[in-house]
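Example 9 (inverse folding). The structure is encoded as follows.
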């Protein structure tokens, strides 16, 4: 054991001598300054080798086009249905954007049309497809005598509530894998998440940028632009806002399907979540207005709806600047160093607690 330790120590010293990275040297120097404080952990590690298991558990590899191990009726069915189900989910997301956005503008009257009614009927028919598909999955799982993974089962239920959530489809039996267009079955890990986040970054900045002309037209040049285009400008602005909502929702649903820590993702992307949810609040409010008869109540309802939409515009504007700043090197450097220092502080506190526990265990062993 001592020989192995001596070899490791010699190899480490040699690596430090050859290192020309000042950042790495600074990290080693900071750790060596805490050597005396952490000495009880070193002593206890002889009896508890797990204390020396400091390898990173992160998986930043990008693993795509994977094969599925389990060959049964349920797995074969999911291989067939993933593409059609993705396209249907995406279609339902487009329909959701159209319907919700239709109820989000026009403060003078609700816009009802045969087109929107037809979209609602199509949405209902497609929802029946999801219901029947869920029943078929349950039947195949029963006949194949396999158990659907709990996390995949929960996502299946949630997709019945809001079918576009099926845009990111986890495998029913191997939930660590997700199906993505052109990527096939891919491993859900930090590598895949970071890769897609990077792919979305620039397009989402451009899409969020669209809110600026919308705000300028609404606040300052509405009549001029409407007269110039000779069309109903509210419809054009509604289409732009609907497209922005669609893009934000697609990105959010896809990335949250990849991560295993949904709460942390929501916490970090709460602005995007508000951009997605505020139109739903306005939509529900508009549906309630159908039964309202008093003019004063109708007026208050539209004022609230308009306020919610203005709030959404503000959040889109904030998201644009946040995403824009995120790609600036100086901002990223300061942000990452702040986060690194916070994590370092947390790590030191944990190490100190571990050292106190080690010291207590050593004293307890000495008394025996």
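The amino acid assigned to each position is listed next.
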């Amino acid at each position: 054991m001592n020989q192995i330790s001596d070899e490791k120590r010699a190899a480490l010293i040699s690596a430090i001598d050859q290192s020309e990275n000042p950042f790495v040297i600074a990290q080693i120097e900071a750790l060596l300054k805490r050597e005396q404080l952490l000495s009880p952990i070193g002593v206890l590690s002889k009896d508890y080798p797990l204390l020396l298991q400091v390898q990173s558990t992160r998986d930043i590899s990008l693993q795509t086009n994977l094969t599925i191990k389990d060959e049964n009726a349920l797995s074969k069915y999911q291989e067939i249905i993933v593409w059609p189900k993705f396209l249907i989910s995406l279609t339902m997301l487009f329909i959701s954007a159209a319907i919700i956005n239709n109820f989000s503008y026009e403060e003078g009257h609700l816009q009802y049309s045969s087109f929107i009614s037809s979209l609602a009927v199509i949405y209902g028919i497609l929802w029946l497809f999801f219901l029947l598909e869920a029943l078929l999955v349950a039947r195949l799982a029963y006949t194949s005598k396999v158990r659907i993974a709990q996390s995949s089962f929960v996502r299946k239920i949630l997709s019945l509530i809001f079918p576009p959530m099926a845009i990111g489809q986890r495998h029913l039996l191997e939930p660590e894998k997700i199906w993505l267009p052109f990527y096939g079955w891919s491993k859900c890990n930090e590598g895949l998440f970071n890769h897609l986040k990077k792919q979305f970054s620039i397009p989402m900045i451009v899409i969020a940028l669209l809110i600026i002309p919308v705000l300028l037209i609404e606040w300052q040049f509405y009549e001029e632009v409407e007269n110039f285009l000779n069309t109903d400008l509210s419809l054009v602005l509604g289409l732009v806002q609907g497209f922005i909502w669609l893009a934000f929702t697609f990105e959010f649903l896809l990335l949250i399907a990849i991560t295993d820590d949904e709460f942390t993702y929501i916490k970090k992307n709460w602005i995007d979540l508000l951009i997605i949810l505020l139109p739903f609040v306005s939509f529900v409010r508009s549906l309630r207005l159908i039964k309202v008869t008093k003019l004063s109540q109708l007026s208050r309802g539209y004022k609230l709806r308009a306020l919610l939409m203005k709030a959404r515009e503000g959040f889109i504007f904030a998201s644009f600047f946040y995403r824009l700043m995120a790609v600036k090197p100086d901002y990223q450097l300061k942000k990452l160093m702040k986060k690194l220092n916070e994590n370092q502080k947390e790590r030191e506190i944990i190490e100190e607690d571990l050292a106190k526990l080690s010291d207590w265990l050593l004293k307890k062993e000495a008394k025996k």
